[in-house]
Known about the structure:
The structure holds two protein chains of two kinds. Chain A contains five helices and seven strands, in the order βαββαβαββαβα. By secondary structure, chain A is α+β, with helices and mostly antiparallel strands. Chain A is globular. Chain B has two domains: 324 residues, Rossmann fold; 98 residues, GMP Synthetase, Chain A, domain 3, CATH 3.30.300.30. In chain B, the strands form five sheets. In chain B, strands 4-3-5-6-7-8-9-14-13 form a nine-stranded mixed beta sheet. Chain B has a four-stranded antiparallel beta sheet with strand order 10-11-12-15. A four-stranded mixed beta sheet of chain B has the order 20-19-18-21. Chain B is globular and about 70 Å long. Chains A and B meet through β1, β3 and β4 of A and α11 and β20 of B.
Amino acid sequence: MRVEQIAVFLENKSGRLAEITSILAENNINIRALSVADTADFGILRLIVDKVDEAEKALKGKGFTVGKTTVIAVEVPDRTGGLAAVLDCIQKIGLNVEYMYAFVNKTGENAVLIFRFDDMTRAIDSLQEHGFTILESSQVYNL
Amino acid sequence: MSTIYWEEEIETLPRVGLESIQLKRLQSLINRVYRKVEPYRQKMIAAGIKPEDIQGLEDLQQLPFTSKEDLRENYPFGMFTMGLDDVVRVHASSGTTGKPTVVGYTRNDIDTWANMMARALASAGATKGDMVHNAYGYGLFTGGLGAHYGAEKLGATVIPVSGGNSKRQITIMKDFGSTILMSTPSYALNLADAMDQMGIDPSSLSLRVGIFGAEPWSENMREEVEHKLNLKAVDIYGLSEVIGPGVAQECLTSSGGMHIFEDHFLPEIIDPQTGATLPPGERGELVFTTLTKEAFPVIRYRTKDITSLHYETCNCGRTLVRMEKVTGRSDDMLIIRGVNVFPSQVEHVLMGIEGVEPHYQIIVEREGTMDTMTVEVEVSDSLFSDEIKGLEALTKRITRDVKDILGVTCRVKLVNPRAIQRSEGKAQRVIDNRKI
């Protein structure tokens, strides 16, 4: 149910993102989804990759600060109101979204929403109760 | 312009007379600290010197030095000559770690200090008819109260405006008719900028002289501040360990440098490496022995300030020795917006935060007229958070702790691990990009 995500500290300096993606490419690691959160002084790159441990090791080896966190991936039909339905449910349950990002999978039929909640266990239970599809980690890594 | 003296006789005394006063005071001082201040007695015993060995001023060179570390080891009151009953005030300045350096004053000390500040003000041309706009900070820092008591002693009118709130300061200057400005030189430039923004022409104000100190400044800055504020800028020197502001003052017609009030503060210049006393005119570290202070005298206190001493009689007629503008430090102390900052204090703060690596760098810059300090901290795995708010909480905590301990606001920049250069031997902790 839970998907491992790696987060990388981005110093506010040009070329950091390019450096990270090159390291991943050299190690034959495929990025499934990503988002960058930024402030005036620094950023955090969040990545879902096909080979989590290898990616972490490769980036740490090159001097990056890397953390691993778990997120959940919710699959919704790719049509108007898909995200709204999930967020509406989340709001009713009273969960807090720490952050989220989304992408559309290859077939184009479904969208995948990546969420980090303050209370992950309750989020999984509640979303499933309300009939939402939560993807298994293997499904996400191999999207 | 005729010279204004506060105590003409002593300020113009031929050297022979001055040295005789200094020696008498020195002997009495050494006697007193030997009897009353354990750390001094211990040091003298270790060096094999007794008070009666001080027969001439040159015998001072036999005595051991006193450093900020000695003050730290005896924190807070261990170097005082007396119990606190007769101590009427304490001040504190930055220590090299988390704890400040504490200094104490008896009623006589406060009076001596006020007298020295009155001398300083008079040397800068102030009289009792002046309106002294005192923008030095009031508080534990000696600047504000030191200047204040001196101006009152002189009989001038003091405006205890302290630092900050520049627009209000300018309104006060304009409405009250401030004639003498006392502040750090960088704050004076800040006031000039604020005046510009408010559309106030400095020549419409009554400012005549600016007495600037508590941080290093150059001849270029002098020209700039004189031009922008339409006043004559003079330099003042002091440090809390010696007494506070009013240790030395540049006169209006100076042949170069600031007059040290050496009937109270006996200066020496030493080689900072070997400790050897250097001849007049040579540049080295300034060392002070306070000749008259009661509660907290210092013997051969190492200021770490680099300067030189000049004994020729000045254009103004004063015979008091002149020290040139301080040109540097023999340690790594920084002065940021008038606040003394030791890199070791920053390190101390960082070490108090769990997970912070002992790798940091301090970058000092001058943006416009204000100095800024940026602390670069490496983000280790244990500090890292995948949420912005986690990392922002970290930078805020560091900023707050630095402000609490050092009294200066810094910017914190998080950098990658190993982004800060590791050096062999002594790490380069400070990059000072100010062009002073």
